[in-house]
From TrEMBL:
Residues 53-193 form the UbiC transcription regulator-associated domain. This is Putative transcriptional regulator of N-Acetylglucosamine utilization, GntRNA family. It comes from Intestinimonas butyriciproducens. Keywords: DNA-binding, Transcription, Transcription regulation. It holds the Pfam family GntR. GO terms for molecular function: DNA binding; DNA-binding transcription factor activity. The lineage of its organism: Bacteria, Bacillati, Bacillota, Clostridia, Eubacteriales.
Length: 198
């Protein structure tokens, strides 16, 4: 129909995949990719706040708020905290009704004994911690890595297990060096880019 060879078409499609205009799903086909959202590090502003400023329709579903005794590895991320009893808040963030990210926050119960009374679906965690408990962010230790989606994450995000996720972890401290939050956010890797500015 177009008078071009299959090799030329394959080469062009491969180039468009490399440029992220198209994406491939093995065994299914090649599809047009939506443009990635470009967000800043969460140490500047929460993802919900950033997306709303960009004009996106964002919603949150609280999966659970539980009081748990942390394992040694997770508890070791906290300085200045005596008790290993924490609130663990798990949320699912939607962008235009499509799952975008899974958020897990660990908050020391000794600092926020009544955290469960807050409406965490509509209020931002950083606002709650700052306004209600006087916990102000002074330092953030942030790591960013690619990880495969677990079966549970894949189910929540409506993707295949093993699909790449962008995992952003923040250890947040106040001006006295007290760690008052550790958070993990697993983003769908094909939906977002994180800009880090130094």
């Amino acid at each position: 129909m177009y008078g071009i060879s299959r090799t030329t078409v394959r080469n062009v499609i491969t180039k468009l995949v490399q440029e992220e205009v198209l994406f491939r799903i093995p065994g299914k086909g090649t599809y047009v990719a939506e443009p990635k959202i470009v967000a800043q590090s969460l140490s500047y502003a929460g993802i919900r706040e950033q997306l709303e400023k960009m004009g996106y329709e964002v919603s949150t579903r609280v999966l659970s708020i539980t009081k748990e005794t942390l394992d040694k590895k997770t508890f070791s991320k906290f300085s200045g905290i005596k008790s290993p009893v924490f609130f663990v808040v798990r949320r699912l963030r939607y962008l235009k009704k499509t799952p975008l990210s899974v958020h897990t926050s660990y908050i020391p119960a000794e600092l926020c004994p009544d955290l469960g009374r807050h409406d965490i679906a509509t209020e931002q965690m950083c606002t709650i911690l700052s306004q209600d408990y006087g916990l102000h962010r002074a330092k953030t230790i942030e790591t960013l890595e690619s990880v495969p989606a677990t079966a549970h994450e894949a189910d929540l995000l409506n993707i295949a297990p093993g699909q790449p996720l962008l995992l952003l972890q923040d250890v947040i401290q106040n001006e006295d060096g007290l760690t008052f939050e550790y958070s993990k956010v697993a983003f769908r890797g094909e939906k977002i880019k994180i800009t880090l500015e130094f």
